[in-house]
Amino acid sequence: MVFQSGLQLMILNLRLLDLYGFNPLLYDVERKKFVERRQSKFKVGLVTCIVITVVLNGIHTITFSPVGMLSSSKKVFISAFVIGWSTGFMAVFPLLVDPRTYVDLMNMLMEFEQGYLNTIDCPNSRVQRWQYRVKLCSLAATLVSTAGPITQFAIILYQSKIPSFLGSISVNIESSWGHWIIFAVSLVLQAFLAAGVPVAFSIMVGPVCSGTLLSVAGYLSCLTKSHILQQFKYTDNLDTAVKLYKELSVLVGQINLCFRQLVLPAILMYAISVNILGAYLTIKFNEELFSNIGNLLLPLLALETFVVIMGLGTTAGFVNKASKKTTAKLKVGMYDVVRQNGKDMTCLRRTINACCPMKIRFGSNFVDILAPLISKSVPVEDLSNSSEASFPNEGNGNGTDSIP
């Protein structure tokens, strides 16, 4: 199994997220499926307010600080956290508020791949290759879930006066009790933010989003190398191949439904902006990078976002390219089968012509929303024929004559 190869690491990440106070979903071992849990709305609202406060504090500091007070590297540092927290939390928010869609998607994948891989009879070496990639994706999410909170705790404790965190709050021995209480509350709230959100973000980007995309790419790769798609001239596998391709198309459509509106655009904005700013700060700090363990977060962010950009782009491109080759093979196979058997395959021909290349969409498409009936999966000829059948005598003025 492809998606289930990273299941153990994902369960570990979910337990770590539960330790930090968030439990949107869990894996039921007895039922062998993911189950939605009732998430505390108070915690989600609290962390939302903290993110908004931190982002506004950082923007205010960059905009209204006196000239010369902040160096260019400090401004870039603040900008990295402002953009990172805002876009990262946007990607995590759907998982914390309503995880039902993602639970259904992952359960669908686990049920789908059991019968799918057995049907196509793909070589084990190819399946193991994709299993290794899914495991690597889950392992990277686990490393980020562990290292992210630790480095941010270090920044909060040792550099607490950085504006993107506690801002202008500073205390000393002579400070009042009220000042100390505000400082302590701010410290605890930001520690809560730095612990839970990075783990939830790693789960969303890693096993939930990238893991599902890699699994679909693996299914499509196995289909292209399967004997079903290679032996049209000698066996009658065309119907089975079309059915398997249409099943994958439905799966890709479900993935687009889950991620295209908010999650993937937020992940891309996070990855591109944080990658540029993190790489700049890593080079800028140079020898000062190891003066505080919290600074190790910068190269970690640069490496993490680089892997995310390359992984998502490469996987989406592979799915589109492999699906184009598959549809071309289906059309060639159709002519081979017709030439051998001489049967009338009009229905199958229309079905194959309706098979369009798969696309992982990184944003909403208003054409798909406004015109749901005009889909590439439905031939235009069928639409015109159905219209003529429904209204054969339109224009005769008699409403009863138009009923077939």
TrEMBL record:
Membrane spanning stretches: 44-64, 76-97, 136-157, 177-201, 262-283, 295-319
Membrane topology: Multi-pass membrane protein
Ranges where the record places region Disordered: 385-404
Compartments (UniProt record): Cell membrane
Domain of life: Eukaryota
Key words, A-Z: Cell membrane, Membrane, Transmembrane, Transmembrane helix
Pfam families referenced in this protein's UniProt entry, alphabetically: 7tm_7 (PF08395)
GO cellular component: plasma membrane
One BP annotation, GO: sensory perception of taste
Signal peptide: none
Name the record gives this protein: Uncharacterized protein
Organism in which the protein naturally occurs: Folsomia candida (Springtail)
